[in-house]
Design brief:
GO terms for molecular function: NAD+ binding; oxidoreductase activity, acting on the CH-OH group of donors, NAD or NADP as acceptor. Keywords: NAD, Oxidoreductase. The protein has 2 domains: about 180 residues, Rossmann fold (3-Layer(aba) Sandwich); about 100 residues, N-(1-d-carboxylethyl)-l-norvaline Dehydrogenase, domain 2 (Orthogonal Bundle), CATH 1.10.1040.10. The chain is about 45% helix and about 15% strand. The strands form 2 sheets. Strands 3-2-1-4-5-6-7-8 form an 8-stranded mixed β-sheet, sandwiched between helices. Strands 9-10 form a two-stranded antiparallel ribbon. The chain starts with a strand and ends with a helix. The C terminus is likely disordered.
Length: about 300
């Protein structure tokens, strides 16, 4: 299968890596050459780490990299694609514009997918002449480790599109969970609800960030606590999802004030080096401040 990934950020690069590792030819496209180069460098780093840990052989690493072509040319990236996965920023107008432009460059049998974590796939499909060819393929970070892909069926998604998506997910050795297009789908809706409540507990001083996370890791076997996960996802991304869900589903998804303050301060989590934790070399090294806000949070 020829797969095109639009957007070379964290998720786009991860999806491209997973597809290439599974044997698919991949075109990775972004609007700036530097973004594409950074995305491919991230893929190289992840695969090289896999070699160091004996999870990937040197030959597998080279083969995966050889299957990836980077470009800024949308027409060239989309030409001949069997599947195009949009992984640009979580902005409905941007996604609709990208999908609309992409449809003009793909063949009649090509399937289009969005990696959105919360936006309406049915609304995104409204930008297309053939909305039946679009569905959601919601991957999870880090893509190369997470086994789940949420397949989001829009109002007009047809069976042929769904079958292509199922086959692709299976080829990645991942598990597809099919959900009807609704606000937050299943995973984002449940995930942000847990994360938001953890933040409210943190800001009211119920427990420290580390202890809240430990409770979920040790008590419920979560691989990562909700506050550390929020740092990994990005506090700004979590805030955007909560605001969208609040608009769609009501006040139970109201974003906590502690989350808003950190985003305003540019403390977006792992990608900026600080969120609920301080991050160094990609690892959480210590909690950023004390429960209830602490000095770093300022008065409430």
């Amino acid at each position: 299968m020829r797969v095109t990934v639009l957007g070379a950020g964290t998720m786009g690069a991860g999806i491209a890596q997973a597809a290439a590792t599974a044997g698919h030819a991949v075109a990775l496209r972004d609007v700036e050459a530097s973004y594409v180069e950074d995305g491919i460098a991230d893929i190289d780093d992840t695969l090289s780490e896999g070699v160091e840990r004996d999870k990937v052989t040197p030959a597998e690493r080279e083969a995966a990299l050889d299957r990836i072509t980077g470009t800024t040319d949308l027409a060239a990236a989309a030409a001949g694609a069997d599947l195009v996965i949009e992984a640009v920023s979580e902005d409905v107008d941007l996604k609709k514009a990208v999908l609309d432009e992409t449809e003009g460059h793909v063949g009649d049998d090509a399937v289009l997918a969005s990696n959105t974590s919360a936006l309406s796939v049915t609304e995104l499909a409204s930008a297309l002449d053939r909305p039946e060819r679009l569905l959601g393929l919601h991957f999870f970070n880090p893509v190369h480790l997470m086994r789940l892909v949420e397949v989001v069926v829009a109002e007009r998604t047809d069976e042929a599109t769904l079958e292509t998506a199922r086959g692709f997910v299976e080829s990645l050795d991942k598990t597809a969970v099919e959900v009807r297009d609704s606000p937050g789908f299943a995973s984002s809706r449940l995930g942000v609800a847990l994360g938001a409540e953890a933040i409210r507990m943190y800001e009211s001083g119920v427990a420290s960030a580390a202890d809240i996370d430990a409770a979920m890791e040790l008590g419920y076997n979560h691989p990562m606590g909700p506050l550390q996960l929020t740092d990994v996802v990005g506090l700004d991304v979590r805030l955007d999802v909560l605001e969208h869900l609040r608009e769609e589903l009501g006040e139970r998804f109201r974003p906590p004030q502690a989350l808003k303050r950190k985003v305003r301060a540019g403390k977006l989590g792992k990608k900026t080096g600080e969120g609920f934790y301080v991050w160094e070399d990609g690892e959480a090294v210590r909690p950023a401040d004390e429960p209830g806000g602490g000095a770093a949070e300022g008065p409430r």
